[in-house]
Amino acid sequence: MLETASATDRPYDLLIVGGGVNGAGIARDAVGRGASVLLVEQDDLASYTSSASTKLIHGGLRYLEYYEFRLVREALTERERLLKMAPHIMWLMRFVLPHSKLVRPAWMLRAGLFLYDHLASNMTLPKSRAIDFRTHSSGRPLKADYTKGFVYSDGWVQDSRLVVLNAMDAGERGADIRTRTRLVHAERVNGLWQATLEDRTTGTTQVVQARALVNAAGPWVARLLADTLKIPNSKSVRLVKGSHIIVPRVFDGPQAYIFQNPDKRIVFAIPYEQKFTLIGTTDIPWKDAPGRVGIAPDEITYLCESVNRYFKTQVKESDVVWSYAGLRPLYDDASANASAVTRDYVLDLDTQNGAPLLSIFGGKITTYRKLAEHALEKLAPVLPAVAGASWTANEVLPGGDMGEGGFDAALGRLRRAAPWLVPSLAWRLLRNYGSRAYEIIGEANSMKELGDVLGGDLTTREVDYLIDREWARTAEDVLWRRSKLGLHLNEAEKTKVADYVKQKTA
Ligand SMILES: Cc1cc2nc3c(=O)[nH]c(=O)nc-3n(C[C@H](O)[C@H](O)[C@H](O)COP(=O)(O)OP(=O)(O)OC[C@H]3O[C@@H](n4cnc5c(N)ncnc54)[C@H](O)[C@@H]3O)c2cc1C
Fold first, then answer.
1. Pocket of ligand 1 (CB under 6 A)
2. 333, 361, 377 — which closes off a domain?
3. Which of 53, 242, 341, 505 gives the lowest tally of CB atoms within 10 Å of its CB?
């Protein structure tokens, strides 16, 4: 069934294709400048790369080796900003870097960390320092061969929640956010984009108009140009697969580890979801079509070997409880090696043929906000609706206004306001929703009033919130992107969640 927007329907200022971090970030910034915005995402928000990252809000220590100073400086500045914008879903993490004689000399690590500490101005995170593993507690899980190393700071983020919060903020400011909606065709007609959208739930299509189009399709960026828009483009994207494994906790403490491999790559081991360790990543060139990707057995072996070189506790393939993989949509700079391809982004604006088209190549979770600012700066001369001043640098994301004293103080306040909340649930609600936890609790005065328990501490009231406010439509949305409860619930509980979501969204 084709539904065409009538001639009286006003065109949107901006049609954004892609509900990953870049599309959601641009939608938020643009609507805040007064533009009318439609964002379409073919699946769920953050279904692809933006939920498959290592989840670091980082400058990217290793990019210094590739002289990516612009990117590292911008990312370090953003790291500080983002940690303030969303203190519920992001936090400071200390990274322990053992020195291995076989890889990089100690002086090189020291010089790199010095640069990392000082490359951007006004950095407040604790600086790096040398540590002796024979006396420092972070040395306990390491093999005795490793006696010296360094510790430095970076940030950690619940990546898919970052995307959802940007979309939510955009939506609350008036953007039209449509998930499970695919752009299937678009052409320039009389100075406007005329775009056909397919609602993948109902199978219906609709034609809408927009003054400008943003191609934030991540791994699909080049295909969208060539196949959907039929626009030749000289820039291309290099898809590089990266995979992670999750195993039962290998070490205690809040610190993460960064290990150097003999192939000069680095692999992280990060405390994850209280009971687990997250290990990643790999860099595998990907030649096939974009889509859902999975980890290959040799990647699991590689990741196990990478951490087993350093940890006393040995990780086996059979320990893996979950894994995920994603495709980095990197700007193709013709590097020979997948690890060396630039992690910086390139914005390509096409105004030659009428209505503007902006395509985004590359980018990091960490730099999404700045990327959005640059994207709108680039569009502003041809799209006055986004010419307003940039505003996102100091505006918190939904739930980020947790009050004075940081997360711990906010948790104390929540526990006092709702003393009946199971402590682990109070913590989890605040970590995922920040001040919006109060909206979920609403008028409830007891655990019972939060509705039925579907599994663990997940209640129907929380799922209702995810459906009503965060576009959750399937159990997978709830268990793997709005949360990581999929790691904690058993199969019967997951089925209960699936049945409930189905019934609520029918
Ligand atoms: C293994 C790995 C580790 C990483 N680690 C980090 C890290 O620690 N820190 C960091 O800062 N960055 C990291 N990154 C990079 C970061 O994850 C990506 O740069 C970022 O998520 C890209 O976001 P995006 O919005 O461009 O793409 P995506 O998140 O892929 O979003 C694009 C969206 O467009 C949608 N789409 C495509 N075509 C259409 C269409 N026709 N209609 C509607 N929708 C469409 C897709 O469904 C998709 O959801 C990592 C990446 C990988 C793969």
1. 17-23, 40-43, 47-50, 52-56, 58, 182-183, 216-220, 224, 228, 242, 281, 326-329, 363-366
2. 333
3. 505
